[in-house]
Amino acid sequence: MIFTTTWDGQEAMFDGIDAGPLLSRCTPIRLTNQGLAQAFAERALTIARTENLDGQPIAAYVKLAKRCNNNMRAMLQEIDAGCMIE
Fold first, then answer.
1. Is the residue at 85 inside a domain?
2. Could you tell me the pTM of the whole model?
3. Which is nearest to 67 in space by CA: 55, 83, 47, 85?
4. Does residue 45 lie within any of the structural domains?
5. Do residues 35 and 60 touch, judged by C-beta distance below 8 A?
6. Distance from C-alpha of 11 to C-alpha of 9, rounded to nearest angstrom
């Protein structure tokens, strides 16, 4: 089994349940989104070009990724709204 949660939601993940026996058998894997802005930017740029919504350099996509906290869905919504068209 894999349990996932956001950083903010981890405290309430098993709220009201004695999860000790279960958690003692789990291996926590702390994931981070730091250092991924370039990869998210490159993918978003590819999608924007495919959809003819591109007009900005890769640096603008990196800024977008950072502003959206590497949330691809949020990035694509902004691109779809035309934020990357010159």
1. no
2. 0.66
3. 83
4. yes
5. no
6. 6
